[in-house]
Amino acid sequence: MAKQLHAQWSSRLTFILAVTGSAVGLGNIWKFPYMVGDSGGAAFVLVYLLCIALVGLPILVSEWLIGRRGQKNPINTMTEQARQNGHSPAWGLVGLSGVLAGFLILSFYSVIGGWSLSYTVNSISGTFAGQDADGVGELFNGMLASPGVLLGWHSLFMVLVIGIVARGVTKGLEGAVRTLMPALGILLLVLVVYGLTTGHFGETLAFMFNPDLSAIDGSVILAAMGQAFFTLSLGMGIMMAYGSYLGENVDLLRTARTVVILDTVIALVAGLAIFPIVFANGLDPSEGPGLIFVTLPLAFGNLGGGAFLGLIFFLLLTFAALTSAISLLEPTVEFIEERTPLSRIAATLVSGCAIWALGVAALLSFNVWSDVLILGLSIFDFLDTLTSKFMLPLTGLAAIIFVGWCLERRSVRDELGLGDSGAMVWNLLARFVAPIGVILVFVTSL
Ligand code: PFF
C-alpha cells in the first residue's frame, strides 16, 4: 500500500523541530550523565565529543542525504538507491536493521520514561521535600524493587506513545517542541545555578573537562561512540525517514550543525546540573541508570519552590522522552502497515504491545529476574548494549559507506554545496575517518 509519505516540511525550522524532538530525550538528560559517571568522567566526554564531530555529524548528513534522494521509507530507499547505483539490493537490510533497533530500544526506553512519569507524580505529592541522600536512594530503590510499580508506569508511558502514533498526530507535536524544549533547557540552567551554590562546581568542571587520558580504553571508546549514535538518533533509519520529507533547498550541513550543537549542549548542561549534586552529597558518580533519579530530587527537595520545579522538570523530561519514543515506534508501525493488511491503528497496537511485552522483561530485570543474564548482562543492559553499542553504529557505518563509496561523488558534492576544500574535508570524513573510526572502535573493543 503506497503511503502518502511525501508531503514536505513546511520550513527548515519545522524540520529542525521534528529532528530535535527525536534527538533530544532521555539520552541527553538521563543517559549521558550516568555514562559520564560510569566511564570515568572527562575521558569519556572527550571521546564522546570527538565521536559526535567526526562520526555523528557526517553520518547524520549521510542519512538525510540518502533519505532525501530516496523519498521513501528507509528499507525501500536503500534498496532502490543501491540498485540505481549498480549495487546489491541487500543494502535494504540496513533499513531493516534500523527498524529492529527502534523496536528494541523503545522497550527499555519506555521503562525509563515510566520512571520519569513516576517522579512527576512524586514531585507533586511532595515526596522529595527535605529528603537527604539516603532518603532519595531508598525511594528510588523501592521503585526498582517493585515490579508492579514499574509495570504501571511503563504501561502508562507506552499507552501515551501508542495513542499519539495511532492517531498519526506526531507532526502536530512540533509546535509543542518549540516551546517545551527551551523550557526544559531553562530548568536545566536553574539546576546549574543551584549547582553553583553547592560549592562543588569546580570539582564538576574538573570531573567533566579535565581528562585523564590514560583512562581512555576500548570500552570507554565503544561506550562513547554508542552514546553518540543514541543521542543523535542515528543508525535507526529515523533520520533517513525524516530526510525523505526534505526539500531540495535545505542546507544539510548547516542544519546538521545546528541540531548537533543543540543536542550536545543539552547533554553537557545536564551533566553540569547533576554532578555538583553528586559531589555535594557524597554520592557515587558511577551509580548507573538511577543517577538523575537520586540526584535531582535532592535539589528539588532543598530548593525554594522545589516541589513545583520538580513537577515541571519531570513533566518536561517526560515530554522530551515521548517525542523521542514516537520516533522510535514510527518505523516499526510503517513497516507493518506497508507489509500487512493491517490498518495504521492495528499496526500501532500490534507493535506497541510487542514492545511493551519486551519492556516488561526489561523492567523485571531490576527485580525478580535480576539473576537472568544474557552474555553476563541483565536483560535491560543487554538490550541497551546490543542496540547502542552494536546495531546503531553498524547501521550508521553502512549508511556512511554507502554515501562515501557507492554514490557518485560529484553529485554528493553538489548536493552538499561544497567547494574544493569543503569537498576534500567531506571526502576525508565520509570515506575514511568516520568509517575507519567505527571499524577501529569495534576491532579494538572486541
Ligand atoms: N535520541 C534519543 C535520546 O537521546 O533520548 C533516543 C533515540 C530516539 C534513539 C530515536 C534512537 C532513535 F531513533
Write structural notes for this entry:
This protein is mainly α and 446 residues long. It has one domain (12-445): Hydantoin permease, CATH 1.10.4160. Helix content is 76%, strand content 1%. The longest helix is centred in the last third of the chain and has 34 residues, at 306-339. Residues 1-5 have low confidence and may be disordered. Residues 22-23, 25-28, 102, 105, 230-231, 233, 236, 238, 324, 327-328 line the site of 4-fluoro-L-phenylalanine.
List keywords for this structure.
446 residues; mainly alpha; Hydantoin permease; two-stranded antiparallel ribbon; 18 helices; 76% helix; 1% strand; disordered N terminus; binds 4-fluoro-L-phenylalanine
By secondary-structure content and strand pairing, the structural class works out as mainly alpha
N- to C-terminal distance: 42 Å
Bound molecules: 4-fluoro-L-phenylalanine
Helix content: over 70%
CATH topology: Hydantoin permease
Globally, the shape reads globular
What is the annotated CATH architecture? Orthogonal Bundle
Structural domain tally: 1
Into which percentage range does the β-strand content fall?
A: under 5%
Give the class-level CATH name. Mainly Alpha
Compressed to H and E, one letter per element, the order equals: HHHHHHHHHHHHHHHEEHHH
Low-confidence stretches: 1-5
Rg for CA atoms: 21 Å
Mean pLDDT: 93
Please describe the biggest sheet, giving its number of strands, its sense, and whether it closes into a barrel: 2 strands, antiparallel
Q: How many individual β-strands?
A: 2
Structure annotation, total helices: 18
The neighbouring-strand order within the major sheet is 1-2
